Amino acid sequence: MIVVVSCHHPTDDERIYHKQIKTLLKKKFQISYFTRSEYKNLSNNLIYHNNSDIDVDIDSFINKVWDTIKNEQRITHVQIHETDLLPLFKRIKSNNKKIKTIYDVHELREPLYRTFSNRSNIIKQLSIYIRNKKESKYLKYVDNIILANPLHSENPYNKFGIPTTIIENFVEKKHIVDSRNEFSKPSLIYHGHLGAYRGISDLVKAMQIILENIPEAMLTLVGGFRRSEFGIKTIKYIEENKMTNSIKIIDQIPHSEIWGILKNHRIGVIPFRKNPFSMNCTPTKLFEMMASGLEIVATDLPPIKYFVKDTVYWAEPDNITSLANAIQKVIQAKNKLPYAKKNLSLVRKKYNWENIESRYLDLFE
User: CB-side exposure of 120: number of CA atoms within 13 Å?
Assistant: First the structure.
């Protein structure tokens, strides 16, 4: 039996449930899946799903998981998806050292905190020190670590001697389109969290430049504003500059619905600014845009360039004019889609989940 535990992700998270757990189910593993989220029962004959309300505190959630599994003799592996759950591993190893523990870090925590925290540098540094100290306290109970991104800096877990496996957020083959339709209008899309650090204000201002030369251009932003004040400021800018008919904002939607929206656009834009997050994390939207047959404009950052060197229209990070010029270059290519076909070939042959799922399964041998 394999136990999978998550306390901050949706029950049907794309990576955790649709890719990892479903891969284990295909091999007929028995799964106990513990979540702390909005309830959606995923139980079937091979998976026992136990969900706690999102208002339950982390310590109580860990206690519940432990009380449920501590006497279960069939458990061979336990996988967690958040740092907050590491204390569970101490209990598991104290009770049964033979159980293999897997810590799926997803993205490295320090670059995320350095980018998203609004605290002063002194408080930020102190907080990072405390977080790292707390994490390192429990790493001796970890047998394997999973990261979602190839590393572009030193692996912080090397000094602990824990084997690390890179398992990227590649798309499933079922989402890869066979062909692309021609588009009468230059339609652009960005999907994901909407925030300044992701270059959303740069993209909106770039659209202002584009519309002067190509008034029929359309931009769709799909996702929620991480900070309400940024959302209010962005919408106000769009309205004041008379772009409401050219920029459409769709609130966050279930991930399963994004595929139909992507396929109705011609150009995907990843306008990330240069910051610790964007310098270390590969955006999953890159592979989703590739699989949907979009031409892609992206800011020139190592995690993106690692996968696509010459099949993307590059823009300088933090440079609105460069971003506008790159987008206009794609639009002027009309419906030739020169890079989209190459990117479709890349995801079919290389950047798909089925191509790397064996790396994940190897952890459970």
Answer: 2
Residue owning tokens 């049907």: 12
Do 328 and 306 form a contact (C-beta atoms < 8 A)?
Answer: no
The domain that holds 78 is classified in CATH as 3.40.50.2000
pLDDT digits 0-9 by tens, 60-71: 999 999 999 999
- One domain, residues 178 and 226: yes
Residues 364, 76: Cα–Cα separation, whole Å: 8
Whether 45 is covered by a domain: the verdict is yes
How many helices and strands (H and E) does the chain possess? 13, 13
220-237 per-position pLDDT tens digit: 999 999 899 999 999 999
Same domain, 63 and 133: yes
CA atoms of 63 and 65, how far apart (whole Å): 6
In angstroms, how far apart are the furthest CA atoms of the chain? 68
Written as one string, the DSSP assignment of 84-107 is GGHHHHHHHHHH-TTSEEEEEEES
Residue range of the domain that includes 84: 2-167
Total of domains in the chain: 2
What is the pLDDT averaged over residues 279-302? 96
In a domain, 247, yes or no: yes
Nearest to 188 by CA among 262, 77, 260: 262
Residue 268: strand, helix, or coil: strand
- Residue 271 near residue 234, CB atoms below 8 Å: no
The C-alpha atoms of residue 119 and residue 95 are separated, in whole angstroms, by 40
